[in-house]
Amino acid sequence: MRTKKTLWLGVLFMAIFCGFTANAQQRITVSGTVTDAETGQPLPGVTVVEQGTTNGTSADFDGNYSIDVASDAVLTFSSVGYAAQNIPVNGRTQIDLSLSVDSQQLDEVVIVGYGTQTSRKVTGAVQQIDSEQLADIPVPQVTQKLQGRLVGVQINQTTGKPGQGIQVRVRGQASILAGSDPLYVVDGFPIVGDISSINPDEIESISVLKDAASTSLYGSRAANGVVLITTKSGKTEQGGFSISYYGGVQTVPQKGRPDLMNGTEFAQFKKESYEDLGQPVPEPFQNPEQYGEGYNWYDAMLRTAPIQSLNINWNARGERSSVAVVAGVFQQEGVMINSDFKRYSLRANSKFKLNDQLDLGISVAPTYTIDNLPSSDGAFYATNVNAGIPGGLLTNAMQTWPILPYQNEDGTLPLTAWIPGISAFPTPNWYRAAKEIKNETKSMRVLGNVYLQYKPIDGLTLKTSINGDFGNSSFFNFSPSTVSTTFAALPPAIATSIRRESKYLSWLNENTVTYAKSFGDHNFEVLGGISYQKYEADNTQLYLSNFPDDRVRTIQSALNIDRTRSFNNINEWSLTSYFSRLNYDYNGKYLITLALRRDGSSRFGSNNRWGNFPSVSAGWVFSDEDFTESLDFMSFGKIRASYGIIGNNNIGNYTQYALVDNSLNAVFGNTIASGAGVTTLGNSNLGWERTKQLDIGLDLRFFDNRVEFIYDYYKKNTTDLLFNVDIPQESGFTNFNDNVGEIEFWGHEFAVISRNISNDNFTWTTNFNVAFNRNKVISLADGVDRIFNPGGAYTSITRPGEPLGQFWGLIHDGVYDNQAEFDASPRAVESEVGTVKFVDVNGDGVITFGNENDDRTVIGNPFPDYIFGLTNDFKYKNWDASIVISGSVGNDIAVTNDQGTTNLDGVFNVLRDVKDRWRSPENPGSGRYGKTTGATFMERDWFSSRFIEDGSYLTVKNITVGYSFPLRETSFLKRARLYGSIQQALVITGYRGVNPEISTTTQGQQANALALGYDWGAYPVPRTFTLGFNLSF
Amino acid sequence: MKKIITIVTLIAAGTFMSCSEDFLQLPPEDSLSQTIFFETQSDFEQAINATYAPLRDLHEVGAANFQGAWGMGELPSDNTYYKYNPNYRAVQDGESIADFYVNDGNGTITNKYTTNYLIIARANQILALIDEVEFDDSAVKDNVRGQAHFLRALAYFDLVQFYGSVPLHLVPVTGRDDAALPLSTPDAIYTQILSDVNEAIGLLPSKSAQEEGRATRGAAQMLLANIHMVQGNWSSAESVLTALVGSGEYDLLGNYADVFDINNKNSVESIFEVQFLEGTEGFASSFQYAWLPMPLTADQVAEITGVGNSQAANTEGFNIPTPDLLESYEDGDLRKTVSIDSIEVDGTFFPYIDKFWTPHSTPQITGSNWPVYRYSEALLFMAEAVNEQGRPGDAEQYLNAVRSRAGLTPITGVDQATMRQAIMDERRVELAFENKRWPDLVRTGMAQTVMSAFGDRVKANPQEYYFPEGFGPPAAAFTTIYETFPLPASEALLNPNF
């Protein structure tokens, strides 16, 4: 009743207001009923506006409206979620109308921070994707499904490990030491870590908040962008039950696999190396032909593997309650042997209407995942984190001599792959290692939420919620005696095992008040809130070694517990926040939003505990102005601008503290005495990284909204970067954590959504987006003019005035083909005829590497010139099809894996094109590789442009074709659809590796922003063929 | 209905009230932070223990330690050299020290510098805070303070001897602003060292009253004597050494070999030694392994180390005794075979240091301590101090005590110059490989002449100095004999005062 009264009050208000603005034309009263085109039911609340005026009204609960207008007026009927219609009055007094649901949802309801807005009124840079669009993509992680769909968001699959390896960067975000991952917010709850464990089928929609105005309500965690996830809730009145399933196979395409020497070629290569050295050729290499193809170790590590997913959805809505349940099973075997990923998940979201004013919501979502994956990624000398167990299994397999078997003819597995006295390094059988290493993580995660919402009077909403995110994981690694690391002794080695138990709890209490009120055309909405969040984590690791028997893997069977690798660590942080926002608009045409968040964090130093994060944004729907009336083809136009300050608090939990290390023990006589000393300097002024961001955007829609165009320009300046500034060690310390320096980011984003064809039988929609993201370092710390990639490799340089992490090395200039060329060219002390030749960049006549002012220069850029996505959706009668493309242009990749696979010393198997190396002035080869007999280290260890390749690509991420069976109205089935899909269908690239999105560290981990674009060898991304069906009852 | 509203209000109010700074105060639980450390006697006892810990790094070898203390204390001298391995060339740090063409990027030079400052920073932390804290036992407080002063003096003495002018940090550094100090002159540094060491002598208990392996009054006296010897304050040296010798706390062991016996750690002859412990806890030493005349097969390594599961050693051997040193042993010197042995590799015998090898069960894990100060050196210092005061006769008893244990005849009735040479010769063999030779050459002003002549011999006959046929030291070798080493480049980059 109350609502109705208010509505009438509103109409009255409008009527009064209009009275003042009405002109003296001939006026008539038009009335009618608005209905839903699909259901025929009356549509309440439809806005009816006389075009070109501020005169308008809205339909009542029964869809009836009445309005005084000029007799030749044009009426615009619009409602949230429906396509607006413009109807000329032509003197009629009765206009009945049915509105169709707008498939593109012109005035789509967009999930924004702490609420929703119609897309018309959004003044920030927000992009929303409904999960229906993503349903057919056969991958385990929702972020992976988003590839190619979001403008300005780079989503890279840096490794193909099942269930892992997706890197999301909003607007090229990068930080030197603080994290660059966006904040994920699930149903209003900022969760810890990423969302890889969440079943994508539980998700209703995803909103990505990109500019400061949209994100500033997340304050000190907002600088990397915010991804809002909304999960499914009970929606249909009748309730529904649906099942979706897909199953398929994954294979690694032949293109992109390393082109290595086969048995004969390798033996020939070794034979020639000995001959070139003038040494006798050892027996194993004397008859290369005997080996034929030999053994392809890389292929042996791979397999064709199944993948399947089953999801059951049930939802219902009653008078006073609604519920949605999603249960899912996902199983993926990896395309590398002995790797797999499984997920079992359940989510139940329920809402109860306790009375007219009070709502209660409860949701709970447990997920159980199991993944097993030996350390596949990284350089051949990688070792698993904090343990002496091998990593880089794929690279190691690649480098193993193809003349040696990974499997004996009788099916048994050799223990080693080396020839005593001839092989350089002790080499275990990597194939066997991959098969026999156990590296399993079992994780349980429960997300839960309870809220109470109270609406005491119209427009006022009070809400309090308690959210919990609980996780528990058990990691178990067992490296049996058959496994050893590169360069170490041959197996049998000492069997080792790691057991790690991790648990965490993050809880959030949030209390908000919102009040919405309109005074005539002046619409206000005010939000205020306060929240508390706390996180506690506990990790315990035991490192065990010396197992007498590989088959008994329990703790008590280990003879030794390595104390230096066993630990227990505790991590906690807490955050108190106050936030408020004011939305104001005048008639939906002039829009202003002000927001402010104040965060206090346990991570910040005691002198700098609180930070303020304000933003302001404004929008102008200029298409509502008179002067655009003549521009018939334009149906909507809006200019947006926003500015705000946001933070990045990923600075570590205890970075501000001067830590005392209590393991600095000493020995006196034969007694160990515990020792403790201050090992890091504290900084009680330490704070968040601060980003100021400006965004200017333009939203245009043409031809009755058939074509939509979105443009954004942004400029971000991140200052107070968390940086571990080196200080002289005369202080007793090596560095000091401080907030220093500045990085500038800017870019242009364009998106076009076009409904090319839309009729009853055939629709075709195209969605194209492209983003140009740039960054530049403005300054580093005082006295610091450059920093290099972590790990001491000096191959990526970051300097003021340049983008982050530029590849830094010598320029490869072929080989000194002959004495004349050698004599005429600049050279290094170690150079010889037939060794690698570099460009003398500093012009001093000699080639130097490794000192100040040597010949190194910038030789590549890991950042793309632009990234793009292209999606086409087709519907023809009962058939549907879609094709998703994503791409990147202009980025370079450093194939550091070549250090091993082009090693001229003959210690490893190498790429086939090493055949074309320099052997003599008469036989100089292709110029890419020097001789095997001397100073090979320059070619291997002096990082040069020979390792750099263009990483541009266009990937057809997904092709899906589906058919929906025509069903009788009376059928118990409401929908039955069958589809087939190919994921990673086609990769068009000049890059020779299997995955141009690669970027990992030597240890096979996610790369730091200062060290992007390295190919150290990684799990290949498979091509997946699936068949699936959706059934709704 | 009303109830629910009340509950909601209460929850909201409750949380609002909990809003205090306490919620945001979360110091680490799995490690101590400075805010709660340095508050009890036990904290300071742990802190002083941690101040000893870098001494192990300073004397060990390894990827992070480079050549250790011997890399600059023995290797630049005419006692040892390296055995060039053409197949293993990642050795510029060590070779350039032995051949006198170091640059400031040298890892050994950097390691000695930064590790000493680690000791200094930890000592500073203790000395800055200890006075404010009540101890259960005031004797413990004196003892801890005494050890801190001793260790700081020892570290600065090492720095001033090897680098000359260095920054003088005496209070804990708190941030970027006070991290880099200007260089202090050797005089200023020696003044501070003397003050610290005298403080330590006053505070430290004698050896018999101190826990085994820690700094003692005797160790501080020996350090003071060493400083006087370097500065040529002979009478001051004599007086402090008289106190040391007269304390009755020290004596020579019966045999030279006993000194290095694993069962005689911290023996009556020991004044101060760096403590190592065999085992996997991370306190073991392995410096002897760097001195193998590599490359060696696993069997050859096993022959030297006595460890059954030895692995082949394929890098380059350092601290190889020179022919000059082998020559300098008098006939019948019992120390020669204790100190040095040799192994046949491809028909050639190569000498190696033998005196530090102790029985152990796992390769690279030995329990051998490093002798910093021994009583025999105190006797030789005493001999030198009285001889330099023109009393060669008084020096005889001290010198001959050392000689007689080595099975050598006494030296008697010689003049001051002869006695001076005899003492130096005695120091060379008695203290061989104990990082005394190079500082001795420097403090006696002999470095230039001795090392130039040595360099000429190496260059004239590289094969005598373990170079394979066709190889020799680089042209730059031995062209400039310097007495201090450059300050590390990595520090110069960060300290604008360098």
How would you describe what is shown here?
- The complex is a heterodimer of chains A (1033) and B (498).
- Chain A has 1033 residues and is mainly β.
- Among the domains of chain A are: 2-99, Carboxypeptidase-like, regulatory domain (Immunoglobulin-like); 652-685, no CATH class; 811-855 and 904-942, no CATH class.
- Chain A is 7% helix and 45% strand.
- Chain A contains ten helices and 51 strands.
- In chain A, helix 6 packs antiparallel against helix 7.
- The model of chain A is unreliable at 1-24 (pLDDT under 50).
- With 498 residues, chain B is mainly α.
- Chain B is 47% helix and 7% strand.
- In chain B, the strands form four sheets. Chain B has a two-stranded antiparallel sheet.
- The radius of gyration of chain B is 26 Å and the shape is globular.
- Classes of the chains: A mainly beta (1033), B mainly alpha (498).
- Chains A and B meet through strand 25, strand 27, strand 31, strand 32 and strand 33 of A and helix 1, strand 1, helix 2, helix 5 and strand 3 of B.
- Strand 31 of chain A pairs antiparallel with strand 1 of chain B.
- Chain B: Belongs to the SusD family.
- Chain B: It is found in: Cell outer membrane.
- Chain B: It comes from Flagellimonas profundi.
- Chain B: Residues 42-227 form the SusD-like N-terminal domain.
- Chain B: Keywords: Cell outer membrane, Membrane, Signal.
